[in-house]
Amino acid sequence: MKRQLVLEDGTFFVGKAFGSTKDSIGEVVFNTGMTGYQEILSDPSYCGQIVTLTYPLVGNYGINRDDFESIHPAIKGFIVKEVCDHPSNFRSQMSLDAFFKAKDIPGISGIDTRKLTRIIRNYGTLKGAFVSLDADRQEVIEKLKSTNLPTNQVEQVSTKTAYPSPGRGNRVVLVDFGMKHGILRELNERGCDVVVVPYNVTAEEILLLNPDGVMLSNGPGDPKDVGEAVTMIQNILGKIPLFGICLGHQLFALACGANTERLKFGHRGSNHPVKDVRTGKVALTSQNHGYAVETNSIENTRLEITHIALNDGTVEGLKHKDFPAFTVQYHPEASPGPEDANYLFDEFISLIETTKKEGEKACQSV
After folding, report:
1. Where is this region: CPSase (predicted)?
2. CA 35 and chain centroid, separation
3. Which of 288, 100, 251, 71 is nearest to 159 (CA)?
4. 336: phi > 0 → left, psi -120 to 50 → alpha, else beta; which?
5. Quick one: pLDDT at residue 366?
6. Strand partners, 301
7. 235 is in an annotated binding site
C-alpha cells in the first residue's frame, strides 16, 4: 500500500505505508541518531510530531520490552528510508510495522529522507500530513496552513496523578512534563525515594511531600505554554535543591527571568557535542528539543551559563548563583545515545547531601 507525505510548502513524497493506515498531521522533524529508534518513538517529547530518521535502515533489531521511554508513544508518525520487515536480534519480540499497527501509528518508507532533511534544515520545521494517494494535495496544503499545532502537549503526556517509585535514599520529587523513563531509572539506581507528580503540581503540594530534591523532567512543546510550572519553580527555588533536564531547563530559565526562543529546526540526535565552559571538557550528548534559552537574556539574571553547544553556541547548561539549582538542555540519561553526562545525576545527589549538611549545621548553631 502506498501513501504520501505532503508538506505545507507544497513538497510531497510518495512511499510505502507501514503501521496504521490512518491519516495524520504533525510537525515534521528529524533525528540524526544511528540507533535507538525504539527510545525515539517512545520519547514523550515528540508528542504531536512526525519524526524523520536520517539513518537509512530502521527496524533491523526489532522492538523489545525493555527499551521504551514511555508506555504509550505520542508521536504522530514515522518517516524512514527503509524499514526492516524481518528483524534479527535475540531481544526482538515484534517488527516495527507490527508495533505501529498495535499502537495505531502511521509510518512511511521508501522516500528520500536526505532530501526531506535538507528541506527542514533550509526552511525550518514544517507541518506535514500522511494522506492517501488519491487525496487532493492542494486541499491538504490548505488544511496544513490553516491548522494550528496544539499547545497542550505537556498536559497530554504528563501523569494525571502522583505515584511513588520507592527507595531508601533521598526523597526526590520528579515533576513529569513528559518524563522519559530513563530519568526515573537513574534516580532509582542511586537509591532515591522518588515521587512522580503531574506537570501542574503546586509548590505547596511539593513542599508537603518533604523532598530532599526536585527534578524537572523533559517534555514537549513551547515552555511558555506551561506558565503554572514557572510559578511553581519560582516558589520552590532556594528552598530545595533542583535539577532540570531539557524542558525543565527552559522552565527554570523562564522562572529566573531569562527568555526562550524557537530554534529553526531544533537539536535531535545522539552525538551533539557540548562544552563545559568551567572545565573545557567536551561531552557527546543525546538531545531532543525545538526551543532554547536565549543567550542574551541571561545577562540580567542570577544565572550562570555552564555549558554551550559547540555546533551553534546555544545555551546547554545553567546554574543559579545564589541557590542550589542547576539544569542542562541535553539528556544525561541518554536512552538513546552516549552516557558521557551520566555523572550529572551524581552531582545532583551530592548537591542534595551538601544542602542537607548545611541545613543541619545551621540548626545546630541556632
Report:
1. 1-171
2. 17
3. 71
4. beta
5. 62
6. none
7. no
Q: Which of 57, 75, 83 is nearest to 130 (CA)?
A: 75
The Cα 206–Cα 213 span in angstroms is: 10
Bridge partners of 171, per DSSP, are 193
Q: Which helix (H) or strand (E) holds 13?
A: strand 12-19
Tell me the CB-side half-sphere exposure of residue 55, using CA atoms within 13 A: 17
Q: Angle formed by the axes of helices 247-255 and 227-236, to 10°?
A: 70
Tell whether 237 is in a known binding site: no
Give the number of other Cβ atoms within 10 Å of residue 174's Cβ.
Answer: 25
User: Is pTM beyond 0.85 here?
Assistant: yes
User: Is residue 153 marked as binding?
Assistant: no
Residue 363 confidence (pLDDT):
74
Low-confidence ranges of the chain (pLDDT < 50): none
- Do the beta carbons of residue 5 and residue 111 sit within 8 Å? yes
Q: What is the pLDDT of residue 29?
A: 98
Alpha helices in 34-112 (DSSP H): 37-41, 96-103
Q: Which amino acid is at 241?
A: P
pLDDT score for 358: 86
The answer to whether the beta carbons of residues 199 and 154 sit under 8 Å apart is yes
- Tens of pLDDT, residue by residue over 83-109, are 999 999 999 999 999 999 999 999 999
Is 277 in contact with 314 (CB distance < 8 Å)? no
Q: So which residues are the catalytic ones?
A: 246, 331, 333
Q: How far apart are CA 216 and CA 242, in angstroms?
A: 8
Cα 348 from Cα 324, distance rounded (Å) = 9
Q: What is the pLDDT of residue 115?
A: 97
Please tell me whether 219 is known to bind a ligand. yes
The C-alpha cell of 344 is what?
A: 550529572
Q: Are 258 and 216 in contact, with CB atoms under 8 Å apart? A: no
Residue 7 grid cell: 508538506
The kind and range of the H/E element at 319 are strand 315-320
Amino acid present at 301:
T
Walk me through the domains of the chain, giving residue ranges and CATH numbers: 2-148 (3.50.30.20), 154-363 (3.40.50.880)
How far apart CA 34 and CA 11 sit, in angstroms, is: 26
